[in-house]
Amino acid sequence: MASPNSIPSPDDSLTQGGTTTNVDTPVTPNPSETLPQGSSYDISSQLTLIITTSPTPSAPSTSLLSQILSSFRAFCPPLLHCPVILILDTYDHISTTARLKKGHVTAEGAKKYALYKENAKALILREWSLEGKEGDLLEEEGQAEYGSVAYAQHGNPVVKLRISRTRDGKVTFVEPEQRLGFGLAVREGLRLARTEYVWVQQHDWSLVAQIPVGEVLEVMRRQSDAADEHELTGVENTEPTTKVPVKYVCFPSVRMLRYARSDHVMLFPALRALTNLHKQTFTVRDSTKNVQHKIPLTPLFFWHDKPHIAEKLHYLARVFPNRSAVPRGAFIEDTVGHRARDEMKEGQWRKWACWLYYPDEGKQLCLRHLKGRTWRGAEGELERKMELIRINQENGIPKRDGKSQVEWEYIWSEEETLCGD
Hints:
2 domains
């Protein structure tokens, strides 16, 4: 079995809707009899879209954010009818060298990001058919606390927030005075959301396959009253059952393909047993069309930051039980994600109730990482790829499956943060 950190072989079959494809050239999946290609469910009253963005090399261009919205139009149109909260995080320091993950930007980068924020807000208003409403936003102030309670007693550290929203509440913008980081940005979005469920979206993950969001939400709603035996008895249920809680559903990226058979599961007897017990295909009936849709899910043993749907109150209780759960500037998966995995190994998976959408037995790719910290726009990315090809040709490096090793490394590198054991 390949190491989870290794570059997958280009011979591995990746499918989208049953069609073999290269991961760097996403295609629209063919219609499937088992996977719904559209949704008759009205999700706008159930789901809030929370998008986080921060300084990128492509600023002030909104090309990165536009790529994400375009992927919604192609693969999950209902998202564009949901309330949206855009958190425009900021930086900590102006330095001579940009270190975006550390919150450092250059003086020029700071100027460009100020323009980017205005451009991003205009883009969202335009996409939600509210163009020209920039001057008609309702504004208020908020604050985001952080740090331990003991630390808070010496000054109560908070980040001031500027919150603006349209009068109908469809669009909300959050602009912190200091850097929050992804984790706290999500927390503030959750607090502002008025729906039962949220879709959490980083600004550099695009969809590449149809997402039956309405049907997934129906599964989550239907399973919301599932008795949590672990909470009641402290013992993981060992009998097959469809009445298991579904509180979080993540979508598969490259390194999550065939997850149920990966080292992240197979090397751990407890996780392997849970997968064998609970991996299943849920059936959702669409009464308006008199058809049944199949939603395949497998237990997920990590809380990832990449695009996911979650129950809002579950999110707040599990990830943000107190003010110090996620430090300012941190990612959820780097902190809570590992704690969640440790607890799942000890038999507390149902407490977290994390699942992975698993079409075609885990062979269908749903997400592509655009690498926001290096993204320089679509043209810049094409130039970078062509430069890699040129270097490869000059060095005479042989190709595999029509691609050189350097091209494959470009496609697969920096894919995501992996859960460590």
